[in-house]
Amino acid sequence: MKMNNLDIKRLNSSDTDFSQQLEQLLAWESVSDHAVHGAVVDIIERVRRQGDQALVELTATFDRYSVDSFSELAVSAERIAQALANIDADKRQALEKAAERVRSYHQHQQQDSWQYTEADGTVLGQKISPLDRVGLYVPGGKASYPSSVLMNAIPAKVAGVQEIIMVVPSPDGELNDMVLAAAAIAGVDTVFTIGGAQAIAALAYGTETVPKVDKIVGPGNIYVATAKRQVFGQVGLDMIAGPSEILVVCDGKTDPDWIAMDLFSQAEHDEDAQAILLSDSVEFLDAVQQSMDKLLPTMERSDIIRAAIEDRSALILVPSMQAATEITNIIAPEHLELSVEDPEAMLAEIRHAGAIFMGRYTAEALGDYCAGPNHVLPTSGTARFSSPLGVYDFQKRSSLIMCSAQGASELGKTASVLARGESLTAHARSAEYRIKLQ
Amino acid sequence: MKMNNLDIKRLNSSDTDFSQQLEQLLAWESVSDHAVHGAVVDIIERVRRQGDQALVELTATFDRYSVDSFSELAVSAERIAQALANIDADKRQALEKAAERVRSYHQHQQQDSWQYTEADGTVLGQKISPLDRVGLYVPGGKASYPSSVLMNAIPAKVAGVQEIIMVVPSPDGELNDMVLAAAAIAGVDTVFTIGGAQAIAALAYGTETVPKVDKIVGPGNIYVATAKRQVFGQVGLDMIAGPSEILVVCDGKTDPDWIAMDLFSQAEHDEDAQAILLSDSVEFLDAVQQSMDKLLPTMERSDIIRAAIEDRSALILVPSMQAATEITNIIAPEHLELSVEDPEAMLAEIRHAGAIFMGRYTAEALGDYCAGPNHVLPTSGTARFSSPLGVYDFQKRSSLIMCSAQGASELGKTASVLARGESLTAHARSAEYRIKLQ
């Protein structure tokens, strides 16, 4: 098959207007649509008012799946076990191996409660507790990814969450066996075949049958994302993700076909995905571009790849690998591939990235499925201030303060001065009651 | 002075409709005002377009403080040193003692990077990095609390944040010396006397003079809160707090005056504050109510206290201390005082609370100022899923993956099966390139 060559941007970081060009390349503002917002608010209200019945009606409308009563939207334990039996042995084995590695990595994220005792007997500390109940949203249809089920559910279980409620729409009644099998392997407790804003509303507020959760995680379309924003505060949320992106930094010594395919693996997600390559070798950038032109016609999702590569991607020439590091910290990429000889030396200079794939063998795709770390990562530069999804997202802390009589007396004096300085005299007097008279 | 007795709600958890009564008591929805939203969007646009000049104009309008150029809105190091010299010695000493205790507690929250090597040489890990630059919003005028400066800035500095930019409006040109002194003690790097939505916009997007930050923390009025929601994603945020609340659990053996004053210390914050007492002794509830009636006329902020106590507070009789624990977990209070004989035994049963004050001596007010733990805490039941402000809020994690040739080959096989199962063939092929041919 003959295709037009890819029209990919070529930038040079030594150009005087490079900063603006980079800013333009990275610009992304999610569209806030008033019509979507209005529809979502109505759906949430309807679910809060009519509970299960609203879910039955909205599922018939939006998912073209009609049932007589809500109980038919609950997936039985038998159906889930059946899914596990239905899938091919190699797929089941792959899911189990991935789950085991993800579990093992996330166990390293466990946090411990701690406390210490001061000289006067006052005890200070921090208690870690898991969330009680978590809701996991899984998109339906083609974007229904079993790997996402593992990546969202396993950290919650490692954190000690007692109950995970998964929701996954079944458009036209179709359910993905791989997704149910992943749910079984990850230890999901309950599954309902509902989706969209109505599923988010059910998880946030509860219905007769769907239990109210403390936090909702998982990706979804614009209706789901809008509904999540709307219920924030009522429940906790994971981040609301922008389009996926990769930044590859290469010293020019990795096989250009490998790098081209690594860029494609990001680009095939969707038309808004972004793939950027930084190298100090213009010959290497040329070679990767040739590899991309050569490989594109062999790709199943070549239309999506072309759109992402031509609209939002770039090959960038830098004067040195030091410059590559500086630009990396400006981009703060979701995925960073350091395809260089000594990635550990470079790591010391990297301040902002969601996940860092080090060395020529570490394809980003390994991290998407089975390396162990989470594939839910901060996008659009938010790695400057946020982290991969992890065990810490399913636990919270309580501060502990237990004053001895002596400790309360001493602290009371300080608190009294500061409280009176802020004109909060009830605070001051509450503290002063605990000051010992000499 | 003679005052009417307080009309405080008395509930009994054994009543059949107690759940509904409790739900009603706890109900809180923040008002979302379209006029405020529109004004805030305009202000943000104006600051993005006109930078410093917009800040000068908006400060003249909203803070009635006119300057010729933006440089006058930057607080000099000399002015900050002056504030430290201006304040009374006992206040300075109290601030320094509080800062030292807050710093010492938060140092226990330090997180370490970690990594481990698998049998085939593959390395997995997690790197902790501080945020580069943080913005701290401090309200002006009467709500300008030096203790908030300490509580927000110190954890950031302990986390390793290089630069803290503080903004504090100076209505009519008035600046609070205690606030500036606290900034000096906490290690704040730069101070601008700007406030409102315009200050949030400046921190989020940067101007000629105000550097763009990575995260904004600190309390503010409805304009500030709305602006924070609006810039979320561009920068990180701390939580947006609801009204402050306390839940006191008492076995009836603490001095009722102490408990009354502890409840008042919460109520004096503002009319929307909430103070709830749970006890298994009706005589003790009566005694506390009498203490409140006796003490109210002696309080400077008696009007605010009365409003908070009568509108949003309650004394609740429970059949047992076990029942008190269960209700505590439903309320998930911001502040929890366990004024009981054996608070440690009770602690084991507490799953949800922002900060837990244990024993009769540990007045909540001590935690507000100087015990050490943070006073920025999750409100309105959000302790079910969120934590006190801490060092962890000023750091983020990057996942590390460095595969050996052998590791990449093995992982590549699993990734390939799963990627093909999801029809993501560029992912599969990127992984397959790294599979060793036997």
Descriptive key words:
homodimer; 438 residues; Rossmann fold; six-stranded mixed beta sheet; 16 helices; 45% helix; NAD (chains A, B); Hstdl_DH (chains A, B); zinc (chains A, B); histidine biosynthesis (chains A, B)
Q: TL;DR of this structure?
A:
In chain A, 45% of the residues lie in helices and 16% in strands. The first copy, chain A, has helices at residues 18-26, 34-63, 77-86, 89-107, 146-159, 177-186, 196-205, 222-231, 256-267, 282-295, 302-312, 321-331, 343-347, 364-369, 405-421, 425-432; strands at 9-12, 74-75, 114-117, 123-130, 133-137, 163-167, 190-192, 215-217, 236-237, 245-250, 274-279, 314-317, 335-339, 355-358, 395-402.
How many individual domains of chain A? 3
Q: Could you estimate the helical fraction of the residues of chain A in percent?
A: 40-55%
Radius of gyration of chain A: 26 Å
| Alpha plus pi helix count of chain A | 16
Major sheet of chain A: 6 strands, parallel
Q: Specify the CATH architecture of the largest domain in chain A.
A: 3-Layer(aba) Sandwich
CATH class of the largest domain in chain A equals Alpha Beta
Quaternary form: homodimer
The low-confidence runs of chain A, each spanning 5 or more residues with pLDDT under 50, are: none
Helix/strand/pairing category of chain A: alpha/beta
What is the CATH superfamily label of the largest domain in chain A? Nitrogenase molybdenum iron protein domain
Overall body shape of chain A? globular
What is the CA-CA span between the terminal residues of chain A?
Answer: 94 Å
Mean pLDDT of chain A: 95
Cofactor (chains A, B): Zn(2+)
Keywords (chains A, B): Amino-acid biosynthesis, Histidine biosynthesis, Metal-binding, NAD, Oxidoreductase, Zinc
GO molecular function (chains A, B): histidinol dehydrogenase activity
Pathway (chains A, B): Amino-acid biosynthesis; L-histidine biosynthesis; L-histidine from 5-phospho-alpha-D-ribose 1-diphosphate: step 9/9
